């Protein structure tokens, strides 16, 4: 297992700064995900850890030893690529065995470890198949087995599920998480898929423009986003703009006509001026009173529906409907919305930083 420390890392491409100044620590045995939109620097950072990209400044340490100048072949890492990168002329078993053969492992030990690796990803029955005879999900399982079989100190995974269909992605993320837990290997995982990141990770670093916006557990990042970018990127949210009202030592916000909420216990008392409010869909439900709204549309998803409604300010609020009404909401239908204040998150209207009490930095 490997503790990874990244200190003051900087990466440039032809004079353009991709990562300006990055600091992170990844714990022994942790499943750590780099999450963000395309171009945020997550794959660049992964390749720096792997030794595939140069480092303009800063240090990367494994277990307290700086490895900046150590070539990728000497970093004892297992790598799972987006495109599988299997040898097409080799069977699944031979692909998995390749790394052990280059390390001069004995034949009996190779056979034992290959069998165990294929079994761990439920591919033992297809060891004699060529990649061209396997589905995308099966190829990805073989790629994972190949990375694990060498018993690396560190497992790196770059968008490993992006080429799979929705059902296979769910199945494979469970396989990856279980295999990582069984092996106990420190893992750094790159994805742009928020649901995938929350499903597999111990902790997540949300990145944007080469800067880490927030690090935390999936629950911490979802429930207590450090800024507006994180709130919008992790899951769905409705953003409302309002002015805070300071009255008799209390902090109030008017969500709608005659719908005034006391948020003194939520926001920093010194906050003045315009704020933005993140309202998760699950924080809203249809009620007998509350925010007056008019239904825009409803999307039926089986277990629930997503309903969009326009409130009197013209803002659209999406909420979830679990009641399995006999008929769907119709456009133009009037509804009142009840908002759970405890699930709201407030951000500074200018900087976008959280103004919640005890907000993450």
UniProtKB/TrEMBL annotation:
It comes from the Bacteria. Gene3D superfamilies: 2.40.50.100, Nucleic acid-binding proteins, P-loop containing nucleotide triphosphate hydrolases. Signal peptide: none annotated. This is ABC transporter ATP-binding protein. Keywords: ATP-binding, Cell membrane, Membrane, Nucleotide-binding, Translocase, Transport. It comes from Devosia rhizoryzae. It holds the Pfam family ABC_tran. The keyword Flavoprotein does not apply. One of its GO terms (molecular function) is ATP binding. InterPro entries: AAA+_ATPase, ABC_transporter-like_ATP-bd, ABC_transporter-like_CS, ABC_transpr_MalK/UgpC-like, Mo/tungstate-bd_C_term_dom, NA-bd_OB-fold, P-loop_NTPase, Transp-assoc_OB_typ2. Residues 4-234 form the ABC transporter domain. Belongs to the ABC transporter superfamily.
